[in-house]
Structures are given as C-alpha cells and as structure tokens.
Amino acid sequence: MITKRIGAVEEEVGELLFVRSTRRLELTATGREMIPLAREFLSSYERIVNATMHGTRELSGSLRIKAPISFTVHFIGEVLNEFLHEHPKINIDLQLTNRPVNPLTENLDMVITGLPTSFEGVDEVPLCPFRRIVCAAPSYLERMGEPIHPSDLQNHRCLLYSYVEPARVWMFKSAQAGNIDVSVNGQFHSNDIEAMHCAAVSGLGIAILPRYRAQASLQKGELVEILGLYELPDLWIKIQRPSHHNKSLLLARLTDHLVSRVQHIQQRHPSL
C-alpha cells in the first residue's frame, strides 16, 4: 500500500523519490530535497484540520517530543498527563534524554531542554527558570570541611555535569566581588541529574543541583546547602519547535498548557 502511494506521488511529480530494494526504501537526492516541503504541507494540513475542529471537536494528532529526564520526572510528566486527559484524541511519543537535540534533524515536533544550545530554523519559547544550589552531604563536609569561598572548591572533590560547558569551571557572582570563575576537579562525571543527586547524597563530593531536585534531601538532612552568599546564574528551561510548525494549533495549545501549568507549580512551590 505504501509503495503504491509513493509510486503515485512519483508519477505526479515526474521524479524518482526513492530507490527501492527488497529490504528497504532509500531517498534519492530529489526525495531529500522534498522533505522540508512535505513537512510544511503536513503542518499546513494539520492547521486546516485543527482550525476546522476548533470550537466543535477535540484536537487530535500525534506529537513527538524529547525532554530532559529529571525535569520530566518532577514536572513535565505530570503536565503532559493532564493535557492527554483533556484531549484524549492526541497521541504523544515522549523520549527522555539530557543531550542537546535538534528537532529538525531528529524529526521532532518539540524539544524541552535546559541547555543553552540553539539551532537555525528552530523557534524557542521560554518555559521557566530553574534555580541551582551548591550542596553536599553532611558526611562529606565532616570529612573534608565546608568551603567558605568559591575558590575553596579547588581543594574539594566536585561532581561534574557533562552537558554544561565548561564542566570544570563553576561560575558564581556576588554583589561585592562580581563574577567569580573557579576551576574544579572531581572523580565523578555524569550526564544525568539523578545520578549526580545520588552521588552527592552518598558523600562522594560537592554538586551543583537544581533546587527542585535537592529540596527533599535538604529537608531530610541528606544534603546541606553551602556557599549561599554566592549566586549561581539561573538557567532556563525552554521549548524548541521547528519554525515551520509555528502555526500549528496543536503545538500552540500544548505550549500554552506547559507554560501555564509549570508556572503554576512554581508559584505553589516558590522555593523551587
């Protein structure tokens, strides 16, 4: 059925779009050139369908989304579940990753990320800031002492997050001293906030963690906030969408829902 439809399109445009074999279909150069046009066509079709549905029927369609692991576990998962309950004809394929992701090259409708990476042809919508703190387990501080100034970190074991560049330079600021950049070292690197949190609680070293992830451990006494007189630059969680999807009603509704609900959660828990 699919090959017949492809053949009909090829006959219509007068060009070979796929090279066929018994095991696979492979795009020709012409086929690759048509991908952006096909995406724009599908996006336009979706806008027409959803505009027709507006006010009469529920939204429907499928979305492919990638989001960071820890932030999804604590916030995004709950918010997406609410959206799906409100719109039962929508399907979401959610994949979790902490690495930089270009929604265009990976054929995604939306990427949620806390990384500063930007891409050509991709629109960005700020979702929320997230505060970070420097913290360590009481057992580590008893063993190694508590740093009083950021420069003291050079004599400590620090837990390094792989996707923040440069991982070995921690940046602080204060009203008196201005910006303070400190080179740090440690025996543990990870690309996952959950792994960083576990390592910090175990007493392996000093970590920079999102406050939302450290908050429960701070309340239990498993972690202690340190260097509180020195600020860490806030990072932003943002939504990235292919520019050719910027008129998609479905994506616009989901974006509005995410922004509204995440802001509401942060208002309920201002310490986060």
UniProtKB/TrEMBL annotation:
<dbReference type="InterPro" id="IPR005119">
    <property type="entry name" value="LysR_subst-bd"/>
</dbReference>
<dbReference type="GO" id="GO:0006351">
    <property type="term" value="P:DNA-templated transcription"/>
</dbReference>
<protein>
    <recommendedName>
        <fullName>HTH lysR-type domain-containing protein</fullName>
    </recommendedName>
</protein>
<dbReference type="Pfam" id="PF03466">
    <property type="entry name" value="LysR_substrate"/>
</dbReference>
<dbReference type="InterPro" id="IPR000847">
    <property type="entry name" value="LysR_HTH_N"/>
</dbReference>
<keyword id="KW-0804">Transcription</keyword>
<dbReference type="GO" id="GO:0043565">
    <property type="term" value="F:sequence-specific DNA binding"/>
</dbReference>
<dbReference type="InterPro" id="IPR036388">
    <property type="entry name" value="WH-like_DNA-bd_sf"/>
</dbReference>
<keyword id="KW-0238">DNA-binding</keyword>
<dbReference type="GO" id="GO:0003700">
    <property type="term" value="F:DNA-binding transcription factor activity"/>
</dbReference>
<dbReference type="InterPro" id="IPR058163">
    <property type="entry name" value="LysR-type_TF_proteobact-type"/>
</dbReference>
<dbReference type="InterPro" id="IPR036390">
    <property type="entry name" value="WH_DNA-bd_sf"/>
</dbReference>
<feature type="domain" description="HTH lysR-type">
    <location>
        <begin position="1"/>
        <end position="28"/>
    </location>
</feature>
<comment type="similarity">
    <text>Belongs to the LysR transcriptional regulatory family.</text>
</comment>
<keyword id="KW-0805">Transcription regulation</keyword>
